[in-house]
User: What shape does this take?
Amino acid sequence: MASFQYEALKISDRSRINGVISAVNEKEAREMLREQNLIPTKIVVLSNGAVRGGKKKGGFGAFIQGFMGVGAKDKIAFTRNIGMMVRAGIPVMEALLYYENYATNLKFRKVVSQVRQDILSGYSFSQALGKHKKIFDDVYVNVTKAGERAGELDQTMSRLTHLLTKAEQLKMKIVSAAVYPIIVVVILSLVLLIMFLLVLPTFAEIYKQMNVKLPLITQIMMAISNALRNYWFVSFPVMGVSGFGVVKFFKSPTGKTITDTYVLKMPVLGDLVKHTQSSNFVSTLYVSFGAGLPITDALFLATETITHTQIKEAFKKVNAQIQTGQRLAIALAATGYVPDIVMLMISTGEESGDLEKMLEAANDYLEEEIGHRVGILTSLMEPVMLLVIGTVVGFVALSIYLPLFSIYEHLG
Assistant: This one.
């Protein structure tokens, strides 16, 4: 037998109580406390009169992770573990206590602790989560609320785990497709910087000594080189401010609208964006509707996950049409952004009365299509980037060697 020091709440009046209990293990100690109409909030084993255990330290890596914030992987791990513990019959309070003790992310550990404290103060699990909007968005909170009301919190957490995992996988696919061009652009920028700062000044000095008349293209390149070398204290800040201004503009509503409009018109990228936004919509609709939310609430939450301005405006009309009695498949068809096979699946689900199953099938189809289109886009990136590199390098080389050709002609 071992001795355990515990903190618990009385079920009758929610007052706190501390004490020591003897049991074979921690599980038996918790069961004994529940039999006494107590809700254990903290249990630690006593050894030689001292408390052994406590919160697991995460080390330097955990400190860095906590400093950087709460990521998708933290939220996925939390959702999966809470769901598994609730499914095993462990109360939410104890599941949160366990996760609080063993979470490696220091910042997220504080969030879980606050959620647990709010539940002790009388909040429901979903209400406590809702106080942390930056981590748990409206979809997460509302789906959790529906699971609580239906008494199916374990299944709801499983659905949310699936949703979060698929969203993270989709994000990684998009990021992987963007890595190659970003690396190429960075390397090309460094090469150009070296050319402007080191190579072009050498040729400029040679042409000056030989009194060669420079063509316009060479004059432009030399002027840029001169500005970077002699007025770097102005040139580099101007480039930095200009870059910041461009990024700021494209993040603004006007800039985002312009970008979104032209992206949809691009051959491969436009189709990828349509499928990605449809996948976000369908996956959220599947999880929300499956959790027991009314179809109108589920549609509202699903629409909020869409980030493309024009597509979002089109999907906002779907909810209004549903409320007037329109079928979901027909309302989605009117947007013009949902693939025909997805609408066929949803229509079949409506007719058969098994919409949840068809939404799952539509979500799986969209994920496969996105993977296929990301592959196509990635394969097209290489020749496009080679063309860009060849054009830039050819332009620089031409500006350097054109004066040499005039020298050879003069010598001849």
Summary: Residues 177-412 form a domain with the Receptor-associated Protein fold (CATH 1.20.81.30). Strands lie at 2-10, 16-23, 38-47, 50-52.
